[in-house]
Amino acid sequence: MNIEIDKITMENIVKEGWIWKKGEHLRNWRLRYYILLENGQFLGYKKNPNDHFVKSPLNCFNVKKCEILEMNGNKQFIFVLKCFQQNSQVERIFSLSNENDRKEWIHALQRISQNKLITFEQQSNKVTLQNFEYIQVLGRGTFGKVMLCREKSSQQLFAIKLVKKEIIRSKQQLNRTLTENRILKRINHPFLISLKYSFQTPNHLCFVMDYINGGELFFHLRRFTKFTEEKARFYTAEIVSALSYLHDLSIIYRDVKSENILLDKDGHIKLVDFGLCREKLHCGHKSKSFCGTPEYMAPEVIRRIGYGREVDWWSTGVFLYEMLCGVLPFFHNNYNNLFSLILLQHPKIPKYISAEAKDLLKGLLRKNPQHRLGFGSTGTQNIKNHPFFNPINWFDLDKKKVVPPFVPQIDNEEDTKYFDLVVACESTSFTPPLHSPLGKEDDEMLFGRFSFKDKRE
Ligand SMILES: Nc1ncnc2c1ncn2[C@@H]1O[C@H](COP(=O)(O)OP(=O)(O)O)[C@@H](O)[C@H]1O
Ligand SMILES: [Mg+2]
Protein backbone atom coordinates (compact mmCIF):
# COMPACT_ATOMS: atom_id res chain seq x y z
CA MET A 1 0.00 0.00 0.00
CA ASN A 2 1.59 3.28 -1.01
CA ILE A 3 -0.33 5.61 1.27
CA GLU A 4 1.50 7.78 3.74
CA ILE A 5 0.48 6.65 7.20
CA ASP A 6 0.97 9.11 10.01
CA LYS A 7 3.40 8.02 12.69
CA ILE A 8 1.29 6.30 15.35
CA THR A 9 1.90 7.86 18.73
CA MET A 10 0.03 8.03 22.03
CA GLU A 11 -1.01 11.57 21.06
CA ASN A 12 -2.69 10.86 17.76
CA ILE A 13 -4.52 7.62 18.55
CA VAL A 14 -8.19 8.36 19.13
CA LYS A 15 -9.24 4.76 19.68
CA GLU A 16 -7.98 1.28 18.99
CA GLY A 17 -9.23 -2.29 19.39
CA TRP A 18 -10.55 -5.42 17.72
CA ILE A 19 -13.48 -5.12 15.31
CA TRP A 20 -15.13 -7.67 13.02
CA LYS A 21 -15.02 -6.55 9.38
CA LYS A 22 -17.04 -8.10 6.61
CA GLY A 23 -15.01 -9.09 3.55
CA GLU A 24 -15.89 -7.36 0.27
CA HIS A 25 -15.52 -10.41 -1.97
CA LEU A 26 -15.78 -13.39 0.33
CA ARG A 27 -18.56 -12.05 2.53
CA ASN A 28 -17.28 -13.61 5.74
CA TRP A 29 -16.38 -11.85 8.97
CA ARG A 30 -12.73 -11.28 9.86
CA LEU A 31 -11.40 -10.02 13.17
CA ARG A 32 -9.09 -7.05 12.64
CA TYR A 33 -7.24 -4.69 14.95
CA TYR A 34 -8.25 -1.12 14.11
CA ILE A 35 -6.52 2.10 15.01
CA LEU A 36 -8.31 5.41 14.52
CA LEU A 37 -5.99 8.39 14.23
CA GLU A 38 -6.74 12.04 14.91
CA ASN A 39 -6.04 12.85 11.21
CA GLY A 40 -8.92 10.61 10.10
CA GLN A 41 -6.93 7.52 9.14
CA PHE A 42 -8.66 4.33 10.18
CA LEU A 43 -6.13 1.51 9.95
CA GLY A 44 -6.92 -2.20 10.06
CA TYR A 45 -4.31 -4.84 10.95
CA LYS A 46 -4.29 -8.61 11.12
CA LYS A 47 -2.43 -8.45 14.44
CA ASN A 48 -2.14 -5.74 17.05
CA PRO A 49 0.78 -3.67 15.69
CA ASN A 50 1.69 -2.61 19.23
CA ASP A 51 2.58 -6.21 20.11
CA HIS A 52 3.98 -7.32 16.74
CA PHE A 53 6.25 -5.34 14.49
CA VAL A 54 3.69 -5.06 11.71
CA LYS A 55 4.21 -1.89 9.74
CA SER A 56 1.70 -1.73 6.93
CA PRO A 57 -1.99 -2.12 7.62
CA LEU A 58 -4.35 -4.28 5.59
CA ASN A 59 -6.81 -1.42 5.27
CA CYS A 60 -6.30 2.30 5.37
CA PHE A 61 -9.56 4.21 5.27
CA ASN A 62 -10.00 7.92 5.59
CA VAL A 63 -13.00 8.68 7.79
CA LYS A 64 -12.95 12.47 7.63
CA LYS A 65 -16.44 13.39 6.44
CA CYS A 66 -17.48 9.74 6.42
CA GLU A 67 -21.09 8.66 6.85
CA ILE A 68 -21.94 6.17 9.54
CA LEU A 69 -25.00 4.00 9.56
CA GLU A 70 -25.99 1.88 12.51
CA MET A 71 -27.89 -1.35 11.80
CA ASN A 72 -28.72 -4.76 13.18
CA GLY A 73 -28.30 -7.81 10.98
CA ASN A 74 -27.99 -11.50 11.71
CA LYS A 75 -24.78 -10.55 13.46
CA GLN A 76 -25.66 -7.93 16.03
CA PHE A 77 -24.11 -4.49 16.61
CA ILE A 78 -23.22 -3.59 13.06
CA PHE A 79 -22.25 -0.25 11.60
CA VAL A 80 -21.61 0.68 8.00
CA LEU A 81 -18.95 3.22 7.08
CA LYS A 82 -19.13 5.17 3.86
CA CYS A 83 -15.59 6.49 3.74
CA PHE A 84 -12.62 6.92 1.44
CA GLN A 85 -9.96 4.45 0.44
CA GLN A 86 -7.29 6.32 -1.47
CA ASN A 87 -9.44 8.54 -3.70
CA SER A 88 -12.50 6.41 -4.07
CA GLN A 89 -15.51 6.23 -1.85
CA VAL A 90 -16.15 2.77 -0.40
CA GLU A 91 -18.71 1.20 1.90
CA ARG A 92 -17.48 -1.21 4.55
CA ILE A 93 -19.37 -3.19 7.17
CA PHE A 94 -18.16 -3.65 10.74
CA SER A 95 -19.48 -5.42 13.77
CA LEU A 96 -18.81 -5.31 17.51
CA SER A 97 -19.64 -7.85 20.17
CA ASN A 98 -21.78 -5.52 22.27
CA GLU A 99 -23.76 -2.31 22.12
CA ASN A 100 -21.41 -0.37 24.33
CA ASP A 101 -18.37 -1.09 22.15
CA ARG A 102 -20.33 -0.15 19.05
CA LYS A 103 -21.47 3.10 20.67
CA GLU A 104 -17.91 3.98 21.64
CA TRP A 105 -16.57 3.34 18.13
CA ILE A 106 -19.38 5.27 16.45
CA HIS A 107 -18.86 8.09 18.89
CA ALA A 108 -15.12 8.23 18.13
CA LEU A 109 -15.65 7.96 14.35
CA GLN A 110 -18.32 10.65 14.38
CA ARG A 111 -16.10 13.00 16.28
CA ILE A 112 -13.29 12.56 13.77
CA SER A 113 -15.60 12.70 10.79
CA GLN A 114 -16.82 16.11 11.85
CA ASN A 115 -13.54 17.39 13.15
CA LYS A 116 -13.83 20.30 10.81
CA LEU A 117 -15.17 23.32 12.64
CA ILE A 118 -18.82 23.88 11.97
CA THR A 119 -19.59 27.54 11.83
CA PHE A 120 -22.91 29.03 12.80
CA GLU A 121 -23.90 29.72 9.21
CA GLN A 122 -23.23 26.15 8.20
CA GLN A 123 -25.55 24.66 10.78
CA SER A 124 -28.76 23.73 9.09
CA ASN A 125 -30.86 23.89 12.22
CA LYS A 126 -29.39 26.60 14.34
CA VAL A 127 -29.40 26.04 18.12
CA THR A 128 -30.64 28.96 20.23
CA LEU A 129 -31.62 29.54 23.85
CA GLN A 130 -35.26 29.21 22.78
CA ASN A 131 -34.70 25.52 22.00
CA PHE A 132 -34.71 24.79 25.74
CA GLU A 133 -36.95 25.10 28.80
CA TYR A 134 -35.04 26.09 31.92
CA ILE A 135 -35.75 24.07 35.03
CA GLN A 136 -33.30 24.90 37.78
CA VAL A 137 -29.88 26.36 38.51
CA LEU A 138 -27.35 23.57 39.21
CA GLY A 139 -24.20 25.50 39.82
CA ARG A 140 -22.73 28.92 39.79
CA GLY A 141 -19.22 29.48 38.59
CA THR A 142 -16.89 32.40 38.08
CA PHE A 143 -18.36 33.46 34.76
CA GLY A 144 -22.02 32.52 34.80
CA LYS A 145 -24.33 29.73 35.76
CA VAL A 146 -25.07 26.14 34.89
CA MET A 147 -28.75 25.22 34.57
CA LEU A 148 -30.77 22.09 34.15
CA CYS A 149 -32.80 22.39 30.97
CA ARG A 150 -34.95 20.34 28.63
CA GLU A 151 -34.53 20.45 24.88
CA LYS A 152 -38.01 21.12 23.52
CA SER A 153 -37.67 19.03 20.38
CA SER A 154 -36.23 15.88 21.94
CA GLN A 155 -37.56 16.34 25.50
CA GLN A 156 -34.09 15.31 26.66
CA LEU A 157 -32.52 16.85 29.75
CA PHE A 158 -29.21 18.68 29.54
CA ALA A 159 -27.02 20.95 31.63
CA ILE A 160 -26.36 24.30 29.98
CA LYS A 161 -23.42 26.45 31.02
CA LEU A 162 -23.98 30.10 30.21
CA VAL A 163 -20.98 32.38 30.19
CA LYS A 164 -21.64 36.09 29.97
CA LYS A 165 -19.62 37.72 27.21
CA GLU A 166 -19.34 41.00 29.08
CA ILE A 167 -17.81 39.30 32.10
CA ILE A 168 -15.21 37.37 30.17
CA ARG A 169 -14.35 40.53 28.30
CA SER A 170 -13.86 42.64 31.37
CA LYS A 171 -11.88 39.92 33.14
CA GLN A 172 -9.81 39.21 30.05
CA GLN A 173 -10.79 35.62 30.33
CA LEU A 174 -11.73 35.11 26.74
CA ASN A 175 -9.11 32.41 26.33
CA ARG A 176 -10.52 30.41 29.16
CA THR A 177 -13.88 29.98 27.44
CA LEU A 178 -12.44 29.40 24.00
CA THR A 179 -10.09 26.77 25.43
CA GLU A 180 -13.00 25.09 27.17
CA ASN A 181 -14.92 25.00 23.88
CA ARG A 182 -11.96 23.56 21.95
CA ILE A 183 -11.30 20.88 24.54
CA LEU A 184 -14.94 19.88 24.97
CA LYS A 185 -15.16 19.37 21.22
CA ARG A 186 -12.04 17.24 21.21
CA ILE A 187 -12.41 14.90 24.16
CA ASN A 188 -14.10 11.52 24.30
CA HIS A 189 -13.58 9.58 27.52
CA PRO A 190 -15.91 7.75 29.92
CA PHE A 191 -14.95 9.99 32.86
CA LEU A 192 -15.04 13.34 31.06
CA ILE A 193 -18.22 15.30 30.34
CA SER A 194 -19.40 15.32 26.74
CA LEU A 195 -20.60 18.32 24.83
CA LYS A 196 -23.83 18.26 22.84
CA TYR A 197 -23.78 21.79 21.40
CA SER A 198 -22.01 25.04 21.88
CA PHE A 199 -23.49 28.22 20.47
CA GLN A 200 -23.63 31.91 21.15
CA THR A 201 -26.22 34.62 21.58
CA PRO A 202 -25.45 38.36 21.55
CA ASN A 203 -24.82 38.17 25.30
CA HIS A 204 -23.77 34.62 26.13
CA LEU A 205 -21.57 31.74 25.11
CA CYS A 206 -23.43 28.53 25.80
CA PHE A 207 -22.31 24.95 26.32
CA VAL A 208 -24.97 22.24 26.31
CA MET A 209 -23.71 19.09 28.05
CA ASP A 210 -25.10 15.83 29.36
CA TYR A 211 -26.85 16.39 32.68
CA ILE A 212 -24.94 14.52 35.38
CA ASN A 213 -27.46 14.01 38.15
CA GLY A 214 -25.41 12.61 41.04
CA GLY A 215 -24.01 16.04 42.02
CA GLU A 216 -20.51 17.18 42.93
CA LEU A 217 -18.17 14.98 44.95
CA PHE A 218 -17.87 18.10 47.11
CA PHE A 219 -21.54 17.66 48.06
CA HIS A 220 -21.06 14.00 49.01
CA LEU A 221 -17.82 14.59 50.86
CA ARG A 222 -19.47 17.36 52.90
CA ARG A 223 -22.24 14.94 53.88
CA PHE A 224 -19.92 12.14 55.00
CA THR A 225 -16.91 14.33 56.02
CA LYS A 226 -14.56 11.61 54.79
CA PHE A 227 -14.63 8.47 52.68
CA THR A 228 -13.41 4.94 53.32
CA GLU A 229 -10.17 3.98 51.58
CA GLU A 230 -12.11 1.77 49.21
CA LYS A 231 -14.36 4.61 48.14
CA ALA A 232 -11.47 7.08 47.86
CA ARG A 233 -9.49 4.53 45.82
CA PHE A 234 -12.32 4.15 43.31
CA TYR A 235 -12.77 7.89 42.76
CA THR A 236 -9.02 8.54 42.65
CA ALA A 237 -8.53 5.74 40.11
CA GLU A 238 -11.20 7.19 37.81
CA ILE A 239 -9.62 10.63 38.18
CA VAL A 240 -6.18 9.18 37.34
CA SER A 241 -7.67 7.55 34.25
CA ALA A 242 -9.31 10.81 33.10
CA LEU A 243 -6.19 12.89 33.74
CA SER A 244 -3.89 10.45 32.00
CA TYR A 245 -6.16 10.58 28.92
CA LEU A 246 -5.86 14.39 28.92
CA HIS A 247 -2.10 14.20 29.44
CA ASP A 248 -1.83 11.82 26.49
CA LEU A 249 -3.46 14.56 24.42
CA SER A 250 -0.82 16.98 25.83
CA ILE A 251 -3.48 18.77 27.87
CA ILE A 252 -2.99 19.57 31.55
CA TYR A 253 -6.19 20.06 33.51
CA ARG A 254 -5.02 22.35 36.35
CA ASP A 255 -8.29 22.41 38.32
CA VAL A 256 -8.74 19.07 40.11
CA LYS A 257 -11.07 19.73 43.06
CA SER A 258 -14.22 18.21 44.47
CA GLU A 259 -16.51 20.86 42.87
CA ASN A 260 -15.38 19.87 39.37
CA ILE A 261 -15.93 16.15 39.85
CA LEU A 262 -19.53 15.00 39.41
CA LEU A 263 -21.11 11.60 39.95
CA ASP A 264 -23.27 10.13 37.22
CA LYS A 265 -26.43 8.13 37.88
CA ASP A 266 -24.43 4.91 38.27
CA GLY A 267 -21.83 6.43 40.59
CA HIS A 268 -18.96 6.91 38.11
CA ILE A 269 -17.17 10.24 38.00
CA LYS A 270 -17.40 12.91 35.31
CA LEU A 271 -14.86 15.67 35.26
CA VAL A 272 -16.31 19.05 34.17
CA ASP A 273 -14.88 22.55 33.70
CA PHE A 274 -12.05 22.68 31.18
CA GLY A 275 -11.51 26.43 31.32
CA LEU A 276 -8.18 26.23 33.12
CA CYS A 277 -6.72 23.56 30.87
CA ARG A 278 -3.47 24.20 29.11
CA GLU A 279 -3.16 22.65 25.66
CA LYS A 280 -0.11 21.50 23.74
CA LEU A 281 1.93 21.00 26.86
CA HIS A 282 3.97 17.99 25.85
CA CYS A 283 5.80 15.87 28.39
CA GLY A 284 8.79 17.84 29.71
CA HIS A 285 7.43 21.23 28.56
CA LYS A 286 6.51 23.97 31.00
CA SER A 287 3.82 26.54 31.57
CA LYS A 288 4.21 29.61 33.76
CA SER A 289 0.73 31.05 34.22
CA PHE A 290 -0.41 31.40 37.79
CA CYS A 291 -3.77 29.68 37.93
CA GLY A 292 -5.79 27.03 39.71
CA THR A 293 -7.68 26.92 42.99
CA PRO A 294 -5.31 28.10 45.77
CA GLU A 295 -5.85 25.15 48.16
CA TYR A 296 -5.00 22.68 45.37
CA MET A 297 -2.08 24.59 43.79
CA ALA A 298 1.24 22.82 43.50
CA PRO A 299 4.37 24.46 44.96
CA GLU A 300 5.91 25.01 41.50
CA VAL A 301 2.82 27.01 40.42
CA ILE A 302 3.17 29.27 43.45
CA ARG A 303 6.90 29.68 42.88
CA ARG A 304 6.22 30.67 39.27
CA ILE A 305 9.21 28.73 38.06
CA GLY A 306 7.40 26.89 35.29
CA TYR A 307 5.51 23.65 35.66
CA GLY A 308 4.23 20.63 33.75
CA ARG A 309 1.64 17.90 34.04
CA GLU A 310 2.85 16.93 37.54
CA VAL A 311 0.65 19.76 38.92
CA ASP A 312 -2.36 17.55 38.23
CA TRP A 313 -0.85 14.73 40.29
CA TRP A 314 -0.24 17.15 43.15
CA SER A 315 -3.88 18.25 43.19
CA THR A 316 -4.98 14.63 42.91
CA GLY A 317 -2.91 14.09 46.07
CA VAL A 318 -4.61 17.05 47.78
CA PHE A 319 -8.01 15.65 46.85
CA LEU A 320 -7.13 12.13 48.00
CA TYR A 321 -5.98 13.58 51.33
CA GLU A 322 -9.26 15.49 51.60
CA MET A 323 -11.29 12.33 50.93
CA LEU A 324 -9.34 10.20 53.41
CA CYS A 325 -8.84 12.71 56.22
CA GLY A 326 -11.92 14.93 55.86
CA VAL A 327 -9.86 18.13 55.82
CA LEU A 328 -7.56 19.80 53.32
CA PRO A 329 -3.82 19.12 53.76
CA PHE A 330 -3.03 22.86 53.58
CA PHE A 331 -5.51 25.42 54.75
CA HIS A 332 -5.44 29.08 55.80
CA ASN A 333 -7.90 31.92 55.30
CA ASN A 334 -5.12 34.18 54.17
CA TYR A 335 -3.72 33.17 50.78
CA ASN A 336 -0.16 34.28 51.52
CA ASN A 337 -0.12 32.07 54.60
CA LEU A 338 -1.75 29.25 52.65
CA PHE A 339 0.95 29.46 49.99
CA SER A 340 3.69 29.35 52.66
CA LEU A 341 2.11 26.19 54.04
CA ILE A 342 2.02 24.60 50.59
CA LEU A 343 5.69 25.48 50.02
CA LEU A 344 7.04 24.49 53.43
CA GLN A 345 4.73 22.32 55.49
CA HIS A 346 4.55 18.54 55.34
CA PRO A 347 0.93 17.58 56.01
CA LYS A 348 0.25 15.30 58.97
CA ILE A 349 -1.12 11.95 57.94
CA PRO A 350 -3.42 10.46 60.60
CA LYS A 351 -2.56 7.05 62.09
CA TYR A 352 -5.71 5.36 60.79
CA ILE A 353 -4.54 5.77 57.18
CA SER A 354 -3.12 2.51 55.77
CA ALA A 355 0.57 2.24 54.87
CA GLU A 356 -0.25 2.07 51.13
CA ALA A 357 -2.45 5.17 51.20
CA LYS A 358 0.12 7.02 53.28
CA ASP A 359 2.87 6.18 50.83
CA LEU A 360 0.74 7.29 47.87
CA LEU A 361 -0.12 10.58 49.57
CA LYS A 362 3.54 11.21 50.33
CA GLY A 363 4.48 10.41 46.75
CA LEU A 364 1.86 12.70 45.20
CA LEU A 365 2.50 15.53 47.66
CA ARG A 366 6.27 15.76 47.12
CA LYS A 367 7.15 19.44 46.83
CA ASN A 368 9.74 18.89 44.13
CA PRO A 369 7.86 17.91 40.95
CA GLN A 370 10.83 15.86 39.73
CA HIS A 371 10.60 13.67 42.84
CA ARG A 372 6.82 13.50 42.75
CA LEU A 373 5.05 10.26 41.90
CA GLY A 374 3.78 10.74 38.35
CA PHE A 375 6.86 12.59 37.11
CA GLY A 376 8.24 11.85 33.66
CA SER A 377 7.17 9.74 30.73
CA THR A 378 6.46 6.64 32.86
CA GLY A 379 4.81 8.71 35.58
CA THR A 380 1.21 7.70 35.00
CA GLN A 381 2.15 4.03 34.91
CA ASN A 382 4.05 4.47 38.18
CA ILE A 383 0.91 5.87 39.78
CA LYS A 384 -1.25 3.06 38.41
CA ASN A 385 1.27 0.48 39.67
CA HIS A 386 1.33 1.92 43.19
CA PRO A 387 0.30 -0.71 45.82
CA PHE A 388 -2.66 1.46 46.91
CA PHE A 389 -4.23 0.69 43.52
CA ASN A 390 -3.50 -3.07 43.64
CA PRO A 391 -7.23 -3.93 43.87
CA ILE A 392 -7.93 -1.88 40.71
CA ASN A 393 -8.02 -3.54 37.32
CA TRP A 394 -7.31 -0.50 35.13
CA PHE A 395 -8.63 -2.13 31.99
CA ASP A 396 -11.99 -2.92 33.63
CA LEU A 397 -12.03 0.53 35.24
CA ASP A 398 -11.96 2.26 31.84
CA LYS A 399 -14.77 0.03 30.64
CA LYS A 400 -16.81 1.10 33.70
CA LYS A 401 -16.77 -2.49 34.87
CA VAL A 402 -15.53 -1.71 38.37
CA VAL A 403 -18.63 -1.45 40.57
CA PRO A 404 -18.99 2.05 42.07
CA PRO A 405 -19.01 2.14 45.89
CA PHE A 406 -22.06 4.42 45.93
CA VAL A 407 -24.97 4.71 43.53
CA PRO A 408 -26.98 7.94 43.71
CA GLN A 409 -30.67 7.35 44.43
CA ILE A 410 -32.30 9.20 41.56
CA ASP A 411 -36.10 9.35 41.94
CA ASN A 412 -36.88 10.73 38.50
CA GLU A 413 -34.83 12.19 35.68
CA GLU A 414 -35.40 15.76 36.89
CA ASP A 415 -34.27 14.88 40.40
CA THR A 416 -31.73 17.46 41.62
CA LYS A 417 -31.47 16.39 45.26
CA TYR A 418 -27.69 16.11 44.99
CA PHE A 419 -27.29 19.77 44.06
CA ASP A 420 -26.95 22.65 46.46
CA LEU A 421 -30.36 23.97 47.57
CA VAL A 422 -29.15 27.55 47.93
CA VAL A 423 -27.95 27.65 44.34
CA ALA A 424 -30.98 25.71 43.15
CA CYS A 425 -33.32 28.45 44.41
CA GLU A 426 -31.70 31.06 42.19
CA SER A 427 -33.70 32.40 39.30
CA THR A 428 -33.28 30.72 35.94
CA SER A 429 -33.76 34.05 34.15
CA PHE A 430 -31.07 35.56 31.97
CA THR A 431 -29.92 38.90 33.25
CA PRO A 432 -29.36 41.49 30.53
CA PRO A 433 -25.83 42.85 30.16
CA LEU A 434 -24.88 46.05 31.97
CA HIS A 435 -23.22 47.41 28.88
CA SER A 436 -24.77 47.44 25.47
CA PRO A 437 -24.09 44.30 23.43
CA LEU A 438 -21.12 44.26 21.11
CA GLY A 439 -21.20 45.32 17.50
CA LYS A 440 -21.54 42.43 15.06
CA GLU A 441 -18.00 42.83 13.72
CA ASP A 442 -16.41 42.85 17.13
CA ASP A 443 -18.48 39.86 18.14
CA GLU A 444 -17.47 37.82 15.13
CA MET A 445 -13.82 38.64 15.56
CA LEU A 446 -13.75 37.42 19.15
CA PHE A 447 -16.21 34.57 19.18
CA GLY A 448 -16.51 33.84 15.46
CA ARG A 449 -16.09 30.09 15.29
CA PHE A 450 -17.56 29.10 18.59
CA SER A 451 -20.45 26.89 17.54
CA PHE A 452 -20.51 23.12 17.63
CA LYS A 453 -23.14 20.49 17.21
CA ASP A 454 -22.63 16.90 18.23
CA LYS A 455 -24.06 14.53 15.65
CA ARG A 456 -24.31 11.58 18.01
CA GLU A 457 -27.81 10.34 18.46
N1 LIG B 1 -22.96 18.62 33.03
C1 LIG B 1 -23.31 19.00 34.26
N2 LIG B 1 -24.29 18.37 34.92
C2 LIG B 1 -24.65 18.76 36.16
N3 LIG B 1 -24.07 19.78 36.82
C3 LIG B 1 -23.09 20.46 36.23
C4 LIG B 1 -22.64 20.11 34.92
N4 LIG B 1 -21.64 20.95 34.58
C5 LIG B 1 -21.47 21.77 35.63
N5 LIG B 1 -22.33 21.50 36.62
C6 LIG B 1 -22.45 22.20 37.93
O1 LIG B 1 -22.12 23.58 37.75
C7 LIG B 1 -20.95 23.92 38.53
C8 LIG B 1 -20.14 24.98 37.80
O2 LIG B 1 -19.72 24.45 36.53
P1 LIG B 1 -18.22 24.62 36.03
O3 LIG B 1 -18.14 24.09 34.65
O4 LIG B 1 -17.30 24.00 37.04
O5 LIG B 1 -18.10 26.19 36.01
P2 LIG B 1 -16.95 27.18 36.52
O6 LIG B 1 -15.95 27.22 35.42
O7 LIG B 1 -17.63 28.48 36.63
O8 LIG B 1 -16.43 26.61 37.81
C9 LIG B 1 -20.24 22.57 38.73
O9 LIG B 1 -19.41 22.63 39.87
C10 LIG B 1 -21.42 21.63 38.90
O10 LIG B 1 -21.99 21.71 40.18
MG1 LIG C 1 -15.75 24.68 38.25
UniProtKB/TrEMBL annotation:
InterPro entries assigned: AGC-kinase_C, Kinase-like_dom_sf, PH-like_dom_sf, PH_domain, Prot_kinase_dom, Protein_kinase_ATP_BS, Ser/Thr_kinase_AS
AGC-kinase C-terminal domain: residues covered: 390-457
Superkingdom, natural source: Eukaryota
The keyword Transcription regulation is annotated on this UniProt entry: no
Gene3D superfamilies in the record: Phosphorylase Kinase, domain 1 (3.30.200.20), Pleckstrin-homology domain (PH domain)/Phosphotyrosine-binding domain (PTB) (2.30.29.30), Transferase(Phosphotransferase) domain 1 (1.10.510.10)
Domain called Protein kinase: residue spans: 132-389
Pfam families: PH, Pkinase
Keywords: ATP-binding, Kinase, Nucleotide-binding, Phosphoprotein, Serine/threonine-protein kinase, Transferase
One Gene Ontology term of the molecular function aspect: ATP binding
Residues the entry annotates as binding ATP: K165
PH domain mapped to chain residues: 12-114
PROSITE patterns with a match to the protein in the record: AGC_KINASE_CTER, PH_DOMAIN, PROTEIN_KINASE_ATP, PROTEIN_KINASE_DOM, PROTEIN_KINASE_ST
Family label: Belongs to the protein kinase superfamily. AGC Ser/Thr protein kinase family. RAC subfamily.
Protein name: Non-specific serine/threonine protein kinase
Species for this entry: Aquatica leii
